Amino acid sequence: MPASERAKLAGEFARELRALPFQFVFPLHSVGPKQLAEMLKVLRSIRPLRRRDIVGQDAGWVPTDTDAWCFRSEEELAAVAAAWNAARQGTVLRSRSGPLLLGTTLHVGGEQRLDGPLWTASVGVEWAYGPAADPLQLGLRLGLHCDGRVEVDLDIGSGGWSPWAEHWALLEDTLTARIAIVSTLPNGEMSIIRTEIAEETQPDLGEGGTDRLGGWACEIQGCEALRHALVNAGEEGVRTVISIGSIRWQKDPPEWCPAEVRNLVLNSEPVKVS
Q1: In a domain, 100, yes or no
Q2: pLDDT of 268 above 60
Q3: Is there a smaller number of Cβ atoms within 10 Å at the N or the C end of the chain?
Q4: Once rounded to an integer, what is the mean pLDDT over residues 12-37?
């Protein structure tokens, strides 16, 4: 391809990238059109998550501020592309339209105590265009234990913060999900945390025996490195890509779901948990 055509194509891709909800503080025109096209494919597919806060006493969570990703170099873009690929590969695609891909910056939770696991601040997304009384929210946070175990607190709520709100959560065994959570670390490595969906409902196996239920991750790579990065990153946080490949309701499903969530559901009938 002639140099003039390459420059024109790179300029078109760069304009499309700048239209996305991300920031770029390095010259995109210095990147080749092939690399820009790949970055455009990756970033277009990622839905940013917002920080979540409690709206009041005895009330629920609400998405608030965004942490817009700011890319300072081509290497940072490449790191996100690698995390995107690892997250997609970490979820077996059984949904009709592929996985739900989300992006966030993980921070240490403000309520963090000195003892116990290190919890990240809650992040989430809200689909508010459904029935007025039934917006659907998705929230996520991680609990990193000192012994290397990880709890994934994935919560899907219907009804927002109203008195009639209802929730489906991994930690309560009312939801199971196939998720891959991939974080880019300062040393160039990645942390990978994955949950799986049990083929059938299993009884509680006690401490250390709930790998497939209760929100415990079944595959963990780089947990200690992620803990270290979170503690040292401060307000900058740790950039993370989340791929949700499929979910299964473990009780009666929500009255309304957006297509993005509905297409992930494995079971057409609710699975009752005794």
Answers
A1: yes
A2: no
A3: C
A4: 92
Smallest CA-to-CA distance from 183 within 146, 150, 160, 147 is with 150
Q: Is residue 9 part of a domain?
A: no
Position of tokens 């509905």? 262
Structure tokens at 217: 């991750």
In a domain, 103, yes or no: yes
C-alpha 158/C-alpha 55 separation (Å) is: 16
pTM above 0.90, yes or no: no
| Domain contains 30 | no
Contact by Cβ (8 Å): 48, 21: yes
Phi, psi angle pair for 128, to nearest 5° = -105, 10
Q: Which of 62, 60, 49, 266 is nearest to 175 (CA)?
A: 266
Hey, what amino acid is at 253? P
User: Is the confidence at residue 208, as pLDDT, over 50?
Assistant: no
How many independent structural domains does the chain possess? 1
Structure confidence by residue, pLDDT tens digits, 101-111: 999 999 998 77
